[in-house]
Fold each of these.
Amino acid sequence: MQQSVEALVKVLESYRGRDKVIRTVCYGSQLVGGVLSRKAETDVSSHQLGKSLLLFSASAQSLPDSCYVALMHVGCVSKEEDTAVRWISVLTNVADQLYYPCEHIAWAADAELIKVKSDKWWLLSTVLWGTSLLLGILRSLRVLLLLKKKLNRHESNGSASSRSQLRRQMRGEVLSVLSSMADLSNAIHWMPPGFLWAGRFPNWLVGLMGTVSSLIGLIQMNAGDNDQSDST
C-alpha cells in the first residue's frame, strides 16, 4: 500500500504525470458515466449520476492538452540507428508539432477568444493526432522486429541481464502499440460520419478505450522511473 502511494506521489510531482492522471480520470468518468446513463429511466439516481459524469468528462476534455508530448522526441531522433525508425520518428514529431497549435486554435474558437470556426481546426487536429498514432504504431512494430533480431543474437552469446533488458523493451513497445491502437480507435470515432466507424462508438466505449490507453501510459511511466532508479 505504501509503495502504491509513493508511486502515485511521484507521478503527481511531474507535469507529465499530472496530465496522465487527469486524462485517466476524464476517460474513467466517461466510461462509468456512459454505463450508468444507459440504465433505464426508472433508475433516476444512476441515470443522473451518469449524465453528471459525462458532463464532467466533456468539460475537462475540452481544455487543450499540454505540449510536452510534442517535445518528447525532439533531440532524440538523430540517435535512432535504424533509418526507417529515424524517419518515422521525424514524421511523428512533425505531426505532433502541428497538432498542438491546431488544437489550441480550435479550443480558443470554441471559447470565443478568436473569431474563427472551430470545426475545421478540430478535424485537422484529429487527423494529425490519428496520423501521429498510426506512425507511432509503425515505429513500435519496426522496433519490435529489430529487438527480436537482437534478442536472437543474444540468446547464444549475450548475458542474462542484456536479454532481460531486451525483453523489457519489447514489452514496452507492445504496450505502446496497444495504447496507440486504443487512442486511434477513438480518433477514427471523432472523424466525420462515413469514415470507417466514425461516430458509432457509445460514450462508454470511448471512455474504455481512453482509460485503457491512459492506464498503459501510467504503467509505462512508472516502469521508466523504475528503470532509471535501477540504473543509478
Amino acid sequence: MTFLFAFIVGGLICVIGQLLMDVGKLTPAHTMSALVVSGAILDGLGLYEPLIDFAGAGATVPITSFGNSLVHGAMAEAERSGIIGVLTGIFEVTSAGISAAIIFGFLASLVFKSKG
C-alpha cells in the first residue's frame, strides 16, 4: 500500500507542475520555483511532514521536498541558535544534496562533450 500512496502523491505533485506549465503557461523555472515555495509553505504550516509520513518517497523525491528541507532546517536551527540559525540551518540541511549535484555535474562535464 505504501508504494501505491507514494505513486499517487508523487504523481499528483507532478500533475500540478505539468498543469502549471500547460494551463498556466508558466515557464519551467517559474513552475519549479512555485513548487519549491509551496513545499516551504506547507512545511511552515506543519502539513508537509504528515504528507511525508503518508506517502514516503512520493513526497520526498519531488522538488517540493527541497522547499520543505529549507524551512525545516531553518526552523530547527532557529530554535537552537536564534535568528542566525535561520541562515545556517538552510545550508546545513541541504548542503549534501547541493554539493553532490555540483560535484556530479562537474564530473559529467569532464566526461561528456557539450553540444552548444
Amino acid sequence: MKARVKWIEGAAMLGEAGSGHAVVMDGPPELGGRNIGVRPMEMLLMGLGGCTQFDVLLILSKARQAVTDCVVELTAERAETDPKVFTAIHVHFILTGRGLDPQRVERAIKLSAEKYCSASIMLGATATVTHDFEIRDRDAALASVEPER
C-alpha cells in the first residue's frame, strides 16, 4: 500500500492514495489552516469507522442478515500533551434491517474488533477501544413515516 501527501499551503495538504483517490486535509485556523478539509487525526478516526463497518457488513452478509443501513458513530479522546494520541475511542453501530439477530451483530462486531479490523487493533495499542450497537427494524421505521399528502 502506498500513499502520497503534498503540501498545498499553510496547513493544507492533498493526500493521494495508491488507488488514485485524493482527499484534502487541513489544520485549524489557529495553526495556519483555512478549514478546507478534515484534520489528519479525523482521517484516522474515519478510517477506523470505515474499516470496522466493512468487516461487520461482510460478516453479517455471510450470516444472511438483511442489513439495509449501517451508520458507525465514533467518539474519541486524545492525550493532553504531545504526542496527542487517541486514549479512548468509542464505536457505536446503528444497524437497520429486517429481523437482525442481536447475537450475530454482537459476534460480527467482536470479530471485527479482535481479529479483522487492522485500524481498530492498531489504534487499540494506545487507546481503549469500546463498542456498542443498536438495531432498528426497517419495517417499523418505514411504518412510522407518514405518507406525503
Amino acid sequence: MNCNVAIVWMHDYLDGDLPPQDIRELKSHLLACPDCRARFDELERTESLLTTSLRSPSPITVEQSAALNERIKSVLPKQRKHSAWLRWVRNHPAVSVAAVFFFVMLSSFLTMWHQDGQLVVKGEDLQHVIIEGNKVIVPAGTKVNGNLTIENGTADVQGDVEGNVTVIDGNLQLASTAHIAGSSRTIDRALDWFWYKVTETVTDMTH
C-alpha cells in the first residue's frame, strides 16, 4: 500500500468510515511501516485530546487551543483532496480515459487551429477547380462531382457543386450562376472546427 493512501485511510478509520477489508489492509501496512505507525499513533493521541477537551467542563485556554490546532495540522494529509481525486479516477477508468482523450484531442486541434494557415483543398473531383493564391474557384459552366472542402482560403463558387461545400477559417462567395446540390457552411470558430474534425475522423475510421 502507498503511504499517501494509508494516511487517508487512517482518517477514515478514526471516523468509522473505513470498510472492514480496508481496515485489515491498513493494519497490515502499519505493522510493516514505522513512519505510518508513528503518524497513526499521533493521530489517535490528537483525537483523544480533542475528545477530552470537548468533554471538559472548563473552557480551553487560548494557548491550549493554539497548541491543539498546530498538532492537528501536523498530522493532516496535505494532499487529501488530490488522493480522493486519484481514488475516483481509479474507480472510473473508462470515464477518465475518455476525458483525457477528449482534452488531448481538443488541445491538439486548437493548436493546429491557431498555427496552421496553409491552404488546403479536398474533394473527389478537383479537375475543373482553379486555385489562385488563397482563392479556390469553381468556374461558371463547370461541375464538381462530390463534396468540396477548403481550409484557410476563399471559395468562389460560380459553377455547380454536386455535393456539400465547407469552408474552414475562410470565406464563401457564391455567384448568381452557382448551384450547390448539398449544403454550404462556413466554420470560423475553433470549437465548431474541432467538432468538424472529430466527425471527419470518425467518418474516415468507419469507411
